[in-house]
Amino acid sequence: MAEVQAIKDLDTVKLISYLLEKRCSKQMSHIWNIGLNLALRISDLLSVKFTDIQNDRLIIFESKTGKLAEIKLNQKALAFIHEVRVTHPNHVYLFQSYRNQQAKSSRPRPLSRRAVTRAFALVGEELNLKLGTHSMRKTRGYHLYHKTQDIARVMKMLRHSSEATTLRYIGITQEEIDKDFEELEL
């Protein structure tokens, strides 16, 4: 699997959302926008059911770690979730597969990871970016780190156990750390 990157420019973050909607679907744009705000692994994001959302919180067990993730939903995430719910009031999953005939005649299933991977790769190729399903999680971590400079806080949000893993994951390079030392003179 190819290494994907955090999107460091906020205008590019918005452009990706726009292109996903125009080139693929509104659903793919919603996955991008909600994924940015929840920082979940794609398998967990796609498995979210509307019943997992209680008031302003998402409560799920992460599939990779088995840990309970209780995430307070910000206003932007709540607005996107509300839009999906109003558009598809009978859906069980937040990102339910509904376009093909099989989906219409069988029990509800979430959208496949493969479909999301293809859509993100298409937009990534257009923008010459290494864009993938982990890009949402990495992007949120990167921007939280740059806002707070608190790696422990980013680790907690991503539910990582090592600073080194988190720094590598969000794309903080030794070059950036060196630059911080050069620019900050006390």
Automatic annotation (TrEMBL):
The keyword Transferase does not apply. One of its GO terms (molecular function) is DNA binding. Keywords: DNA integration, DNA recombination. Residues 2-182 form the Tyr recombinase domain. InterPro entries: DNA_brk_join_enz, Integrase-like_cat_sf, Integrase_catalytic, Tyrosine_recombinase_XerCD. GO terms for biological process: DNA integration; DNA recombination. The keyword Transmembrane does not apply. This is Tyr recombinase domain-containing protein. It comes from Pseudoalteromonas nigrifaciens.
